[in-house]
Every structure is written in structure tokens, then in C-alpha cells.
Specification:
The complex is a heterodimer of chains A (about 450) and B (about 375). Chain A has 14 helices and 17 strands. With about 450 residues, chain A is an alpha/beta fold. Chain B has one domain: ABC transporter involved in vitamin B12 uptake, BtuC. The chains are: A alpha/beta (about 450), B mainly alpha (about 375). At the A-B interface, helix 1, strand 14, helix 10 and helix 11 of A face helix 4, helix 5, helix 8, helix 9 and helix 10 of B.
Chain lengths: ~450, ~375
């Protein structure tokens, strides 16, 4: 009996380890939080071939002729079902192809597509395969270990705020019927939906409320996985027969790759045309900023993260964040490292390397009102050059009242804005027309 | 509820076990002291940043190192950490010994009274509940910083400390104290789980980070509280060794010897709570050392006499804390481990080996 407190401690410790693993997996940042698309710079209305609206497909409803007079569709069917199936027709004239994302692969067939999530979480031994079948057409047989899902999905539940910008860009917010949690949403449109009571809140991870989910009758639940049944929602949901797919955008190691999962989402709604256009436009904006700062000769050195006691967690050199710093014309101090997650280093090692760093990007959850407050917490930061010069930034400019940071919502979905923000921090002279959207410079005094 | 696991009570009646021979005791003391000194020096000299020994020495005596950061690293990172590990290890060893004797239970640890549960709750309230509780007054996350964590842990541990002492003065039996500790553990566990359930990942991470424990978070400013608190606790522990010996033989026996059992119990409780509270508040819940060190010392010195054991656990606790912290730093490697991982991973096999070996001798 005396063991009890000890066991409890140990158990807490295990939980801790797992949570930390999750955080590490996400580049030292919370995987999952929250954010809505913001009204900022570019509402991303692509100027590219906007995929025509539903342009129905196959046929008039009259169902008159039993013969192959099916007219081949020129756009994907984004609404409703095929009424006269013709195996010879390609029902997906609009297709996606991924350029930067490496975590999923799609294969198109006439009336279905097979998408494989290659790398669902760090160290995953399994892959997830989904057969997305045009509704109104027969599902293929003989594909093993695959979940069959009808497209276009009509009712969707999003289990991570990082998915919201994608839904918004694809014009699918009206199909959103639920979220894991309402607390951390920043997107004004989604907040309106929450207030009007049309969304259900089903809980995240292993705490997901299966009964509520079944009752909501989703056509699609999009979640993420960390590979531990104690923390994942999909095992329970799949067991209950709910069409649940893993969106592993957080595993991508480049900012563009992460946002390209927009195309993955689009697959389930036949919105490939829209996704291609949106992504192309965003990538163009991203590359334009990158080009602007590419040839600058003075690249400020950058340190990121904060110490906790004598440890300091820094993003790995192969992480999406390191890539963002590089593309924004900064010199990341751990660029030589290749790990895609984050690294737990000794404070003294970071101190030794970062003593002369020009810029300090905090990525702190706590909202410090001044550098003075940071030093009260940990006086040892005082020696850092960035602290002396006041070049200290945190990404907490847009945080909702529950602590949901829009960086993890709108930000992740719009890497062009993230890049412009960092470029503005590193090279204010080149980016004078851009006011940082997510990053806030911390004043020396309150 | 059979608490009186017999070993502690009976062993002292038994002829001293043959391991190690009595003549080795003096050597043992020298070895222990040398071990503490060596570990202390090593933890100043070794770290993630490679600093030549002569530079470390120069920094310590106040000279200028050839690289400015080295001086800062030695004086504000390594030195306070080494002192913290030294004191915390000693404190945990002493408090563990006190609790094992008080409850006559070899599984008791310094936290059996619920002190660390109180600290956990304090931290959890501050970190996880901070959003709700302090929103209006201090701004959303006003207390999330390191200093806030220490304050919260100290307040939580202190509150439980007061409760435990108040009750310890009245209760007739240690079992009541033990149950009290257990119940405090359950209550705070429930509260912490509830807070975690409603918290966002960043908050949970901050809390989990704290539960990993660390000797490296104590700054010189915090040392002004931590060092006196643990030194007072250690002094109280050393002063209280005689009643501990009496308690070892059972409360009735102690009474027949003229020991004021209630006062003795209170003294031991106060000292152990102070030690456990100080360590938990400043270093987080450091596991294992408190259970293991007393067992190791009993085996090494082959005695149950607290006049020997108490200084022994203080020395060995300090030495092990320093050594485990060195292992956690993994000098030369890039990454570091949480101290609690190391204490359990390296400590458990050592204790198992010592105890099994001792059993074998005892049976012969």
C-alpha cells in the first residue's frame, strides 16, 4: 500500500514521457493546437483556374437511355452522386499531384482513388490506405487493409485546428459539423458556427466521445495520430465504424509540405482543382518572399526555444522551423543538425552557442510582457546578445482567450505568412511593407 | 495493513551480518567522503560544453577564462547545480531513512506523507489551472515561469506540511499518518488529472517538465532559500538519531526506554517533511534516491544503528545524486536525460544486487 504514491508518481512520469514524445514529434511545438485562418494578408483566393463549381457530371436525371452516352465530366463532382455509372468514364478529371509533401501518395483510377498516408507518426511501422470511391459508383474489390470512403464527403469533423484553414480554403466550412474541442479555435467563421450551436464537440485523443460522434453521423472524421493508443482517437473511432482518416501534416519537414496537405483533404471532397490552385498561389507567394531575402549577405544568427531549468529544447536542424528560418534569410544556429524533431540540449551548451545570436525566437507559451519579466524568471538569459539588443520575439500575437494560438491554425496553413513574418524580423529593411502577423517583439520594459 | 515488515525491527537483534567486516567501516567512511568530493569536482568539470580543467579552476577562483561564456557556465550553471544535487541527495537520503524507520516499512520514501503530492498539486494548479484561476487578476499565464513553479510547489508542499504536522501531534499511531499520506496522494492525483484533462498541450508539457525533476533549475537567488531549508532539515535529522534508534525497536519498547514517542515522531516528521518539501519545491519530485539510499547504507555498513546510518545516507545520497546527474548529462553526448530516468534505471539494479547479495549472506 505504501507503494501507492510511488506508483502514482511513476505513472504520471510515463504519461509525461508520452506527452513529451508527442511534443518532440511536432518539432518541439504543440502538435495540435488551434487556429483559424486569418483575415490577414492574403485571403488566398487563387487567381488560378478556379475549379468550376459542381459542374455536375454524368447525366441528366431522367435516366433515359441505358447506353454509353455518358458525357465525360470536365470537373470533379463536388456535390451529390453519380447517377449513371459508366466504368469507362474518368470521374476525376481534376487530380492532385504533390510537389513538396512527402507524407502521402495518391493513385487515380476511373471511379476511385487510393491515397496512402506513408508516415503517420514518428517511427510508425504501419501505413494507412484509403480508397476514396466516387459516390454512386461501385467500390473496387481486392484492395486489402484499406478503408473505403465515399466522396464527396458531406459532413466532416476536424480533430485538429491545423485542418481548419484547409477546409476554409477549399470552401468546405459549411460541411464542418464538429471539432475535437471548441476552446482553441481562432477562425472567426468557425467561431460563429460554434456560437450558433451547429457544431458538436467530441473530445480529442483517447478521450474522444464515440457516442456523440456516432450521433453526429459524420461522413468523415479527420484526425492525427501519435502512435500510442492511449493518446490516439482513431482506434476507438474506427472500431465504432466511423470513417476516420489520419492527417499527418505535422510529420512534414518543410513549411510548404505541411500546407500541401490541403490537397490530401481535398481528395475526400473531390476538390482537387481548388486545392491545386490554392496551393500553387500560396507557394508562389512563399517563393517570392524567399527570393527577396535569398541573396542578402548579412544573415542574422537565430536561436529558438527557451530553457526549462537546465535543459533547452531547440528545433532540430531538419525541422520545418529550421527550414523556415533558412528560407527567411536567417542563419539558424543548429542548421548543421539533421533531426526533424526537436532536441533537448543542456542549457549551458545552448548558452555557449547562442551567446552572440542576433535574434531570439522564443516560442513560449507564457505571454511575457517584457524582457525584464523573462529575466526575473531566469536571470541567466541576461548574457545573451539578443536580450541585450532587445531582439526577442514570441509567436503569441494572435492567441485566443483560452490560449489557442493562431500560429498553430492559420499559421501552419499559410506558410507564406510565416515566412514573411520571419523575413520581416530578420531583414526589416527589405520587408518594410509587412507587419508581422504572428510574431510580437517583446519590449525591454513592460 | 501489515506495516511492520519485520526486517527493520528484528535485524538489530541479529548478529551483524558478515558483510562487510566491521574493520572496514573506517575505510568505508573515507571512500564515501572521497566519492562525494570526486563527484562534486566532476560535476563542475564535466558538462555539455567542454571546458579545460584549468579554465574551470580559473573561473572558480574568480580569474578570467579565455572564453567569457566559460566563466558564466561554471559559476552560474555548474556550481549551483552541483551544490543543489549535493544537498538534495543528502536530504532525500536522510528523509527516506527517517520515513522507513518511522513507519517500520522498507518501502517508505520521503514522499510517503504526501509532501510531493502537495507540491504537485500546487504546480498543477499554477500551471494548468492558472488560465482559469488567475485570468482576472494576474493575466492569463502570469505564473507560468520557473519562479512561479518554485513558489507554487513550495506553497503546496508547505500546506501539506502543516496538515501533516498538526495531525502528527495528535495521532496515536503511525498508521493514521500513513493513511493520511495515501489519501492526500489520491486527492491530489485526482485534482491533477482533472486539470490535465482540461488543459492544452503547452500547459501539460510545462507540468510534465516539472515532474521530470532537475537539479539545474536552482539559481543563486533560489539557493538562498533552498540551502538553509535543507541544511536545517539535515541538522534536525542528525540531532534526532537517538529517538530513531528507539523507534526502530517499536513504539512500546521506545516508551519503556523513556522516550517521548509522540515528540520523537513529531520531530522526525517535521525534519523529513522539511527536507522532502524543499527538494520537491526546487528540484521537482526526484524519485528513487530516498528509497534506495537507506537500503544501500544498511547493506554497506551492515548495521541498523542510526548514529552510523544517518551520516552514511547523507554522504551516499549526495554522492549518488551528483553521479546520477552526471550520467543524465551524458558528457560528450548532445542530448540529456531527465534525472528521474537515470535514478531509477541505474539505481534499481544496484539496490537489487545489494539486497540479494545481503540475503544470501544472511542465510548462510
Amino acid at each position: 500500500m505504501v507503494l501507492k504514491p510511488f506508483v502514482a508518481l511513476y505513472r504520471r512520469f510515463l504519461i509525461g514521457l508520452t506527452v513529451m514524445a508527442l511534443l518532440v514529434a511536432c518539432t518541439g511545438q504543440p502538435a495540435i493546437s488551434t487556429q483559424p485562418p486569418e483575415p490577414s494578408p492574403s485571403p488566398v483566393t487563387a487567381s488560378t483556374p478556379t475549379p468550376l463549381p459542381p459542374t455536375p457530371t454524368p447525366e441528366p436525371t431522367a435516366t433515359p437511355i441505358p447506353t454509353p452516352t455518358v458525357i465525360a465530366p470536365t470537373a470533379n463532382l463536388t456535390e451529390g452522386c453519380v447517377e449513371n455509372y459508366d466504368p469507362a468514364v474518368d470521374y476525376f478529371p481534376e487530380k492532385v499531384s504533390s510537389e513538396d509533401a512527402t507524407g502521402f501518395a495518391v493513385e487515380y483510377f476511373n471511379n476511385y482513388k487510393v491515397v496512402t498516408v506513408l508516415n503517420p507518426w514518428r517511427g510508425a511501422q504501419e501505413q494507412f490506405r484509403y480508397v476514396i470511391v466516387q459516390c454512386g459508383t461501385p467500390a473496387p474489390t481486392g484492395i486489402e487493409n484499406a478503408l473505403v470512403i465515399a466522396a464527396p464527403a458531406g459532413r466532416v469533423i476536424a480533430m485538429s485546428t491545423t485542418q481548419l484553414p484547409h477546409l476554409e480554403k477549399l470552401g468546405l466550412l459549411d460541411r464542418l459539423i464538429g471539432l475535437d474541442s471548441f476552446l482553441y479555435v481562432n477562425n472567426p467563421k468557425v467561431q460563429t458556427l460554434i456560437q450558433s450551436g451547429v457544431l458538436v464537440e467530441i473530445g480529442g485523443g483517447a478521450e474522444v466521445n464515440v457516442e456523440k460522434t456516432i450521433e453526429a453521423q459524420p461522413d468523415l472524421v479527420m484526425t492525427y495520430g501519435v502512435g500510442d493508443p492511449q493518446y490516439d482517437a482513431h482506434p476507438k473511432l474506427l472500431e465504432a465504424g466511423i470513417p476516420t482518416v489520419i492527417n499527418a501534416e505535422y510529420m512534414e519537414s518543410t513549411p510548404l509540405g505541411r500546407s500541401e496537405w490541403l490537397k490530401f483533404t481535398a481528395l475526400f471532397f473531390n476538390r482537387e482543382g481548388k486545392a491545386q490552385a490554392e496551393y500553387a498561389a500560396m507557394k508562389q507567394r512563399y517563393l517570392a518572399v524567399a527570393e527577396k531575402v535569398k541573396h542578402v549577405s548579412n544573415k542574422p544568427t537565430v536561436v529558438s526555444g527557451m530553457a526549462s531549468k537546465d535543459k533547452w529544447r531547440v528545433p532540430g536542424g531538419g525541422s520545418y522551423f529550421a527550414r523556415l528560418i533558412l528560407d527567411a534569410g536567417g542563419a539558424y544556429l543548429w542548421a548543421d543538425d539533421s533531426s526533424a524533431g526537436s532536441m533537448q540540449l543542456a542549457f549551458e551548451e545552448v548558452y555557449d552557442r547562442a551567446i552572440n545570436a542576433d535574434v531570439w525566437l522564443l516560442t513560449a507559451f507564457r505571454r511575457y510582457d517584457s524582457i525584464k519579466a523573462i529575466l526575473e524568471d531566469e536571470p541567466r538569459y541576461a548574457g545573451l546578445a539578443a536580450v541585450k539588443s532587445g531582439n526577442v520575439w514570441n509567436y503569441d500575437k494572435r492567441v485566443n482567450e483560452n490560449g489557442g494560438n493562431d500560429y498553430w491554425e492559420t499559421g501552419i496553413g499559410n506558410p507564406d505568412i510565416l515566412l514573411a513574418d520571419l523575413a520581416r524580423i530578420f531583414h526589416p529593411e527589405l520587408m518594410a511593407d509587412h507587419e508581422p502577423v504572428f510574431w510580437r517583439q517583446i519590449p525591454a520594459q513592460p | 495493513m501489515n506495516l511492520s515488515l519485520p526486517r527493520a525491527g528484528q535485524a538489530s537483534d541479529r548478529p551483524a551480518s558478515p558483510f562487510p567486516p566491521l574493520g572496514m567501516r573506517r575505510a568505508m567512511w573515507l571512500v564515501l567522503i572521497a566519492l562525494v568530493a570526486a563527484a562534486f569536482v566532476a560535476s563542475l568539470a564535466l558538462g555539455a560544453v567542454r571546458i579545460p580543467p584549468e579554465e574551470v579552476l580559473r573561473a572558480l577562483v574568480g580569474g578570467r577564462t579565455s572564453k567569457d561564456t566559460w566563466q558564466t557556465i561554471v559559476l552560474t550553471f555548474r556550481l549551483p547545480k552541483a551544490i543543489t544535487a549535493l544537498l538534495a541527495g543528502a536530504a532525500l537520503g536522510a528523509a527516506g531513512l527517517q520515513m522507513q524507520t518511522l513507519f517500520r516499512n522498507p518501502l517508505a520514501d520521503p514522499f510517503v506523507l504526501g509532501i510531493s503530492s502537495g507540491a504537485s498539486l500546487g504546480v498543477a494548479l499554477m500551471v494548468l489551472g492558472g488560465a482559469a484561476v488567475s485570468a482576472g487578476v494576474f493575466g492569463r499565464t502570469a505564473f507560468l515561469g520557473e519562479f512561479g513553479l518554485v513558489t507554487a510547489a513550495a506553497l503546496g508542499a508547505g500546506a501539506i506540511f502543516v496538515v501533516v504536522l498538526t495531525i502528527a501531534r495528535r495521532v496515536q499511531s503511525v498508521v493514521t499518518l500513513l493513511v493520511l499520506g495515501l489519501m492526500i496522494g489520491y486527492l491530489t492525483g485526482a485534482a491533477v488529472s482533472l486539470l490535465i484533462y482540461f488543459s492544452i498541450p503547452e500547459q501539460v508539457a510545462a507540468y510534465v517538465n516539472w515532474t521530470f525533476g532537475s537539479f539545474g533549475g536552482v539559481t543563486w537567488q533560489q539557493m538562498r532559500v533552498f540551502a538553509p531549508a535543507s541544511l536545517i532539515g539535515l541538522a534536525m535529522a542528525l540531532v534526532g538519531v537517538k529517538p530513531l534508534n528507539a523507534l526502530l525497536l517499536g513504539e512500546n519498547y521506545a516508551r519503556s526506554l523513556g522516550v517521548n514517542v509522540r515528540a520523537a515522531r513529531w520531530w522526525v516528521t517535521a525534519s523529513a517533511s522539511l527536507l522532502a518539501g524543499a527538494v520537491t519545491a526546487f528540484c521537482g519530485p526526484i524519485g528513487f534516491l530516498g528509497v534506495a539510499v537507506p537500503h544501500l547504507c544498511r547493506a554497506l555498513f551492515a548495521t541498523h544503528d542510526h548514529r552510523v546510518l544517518m551520516p552514511a545516507v547523507i554522504l551516499l545520497g549526495a554522492a549518488l545524486a551528483l553521479i546520477f546527474d552526471l550520467i543524465a548529462q551524458m558528457p560528450g553526448a548532445r542530448l540529456t536525460l531527465p534525472i528521474n530516468v537515470v535514478t531509477a534505471a541505474f539505481g534499481a539494479p544496484i539496490v537489487l544486487w545489494v539486497i540479494l547479495r545481503r540475503q544470501r549472506f544472511a542465510r548462510v
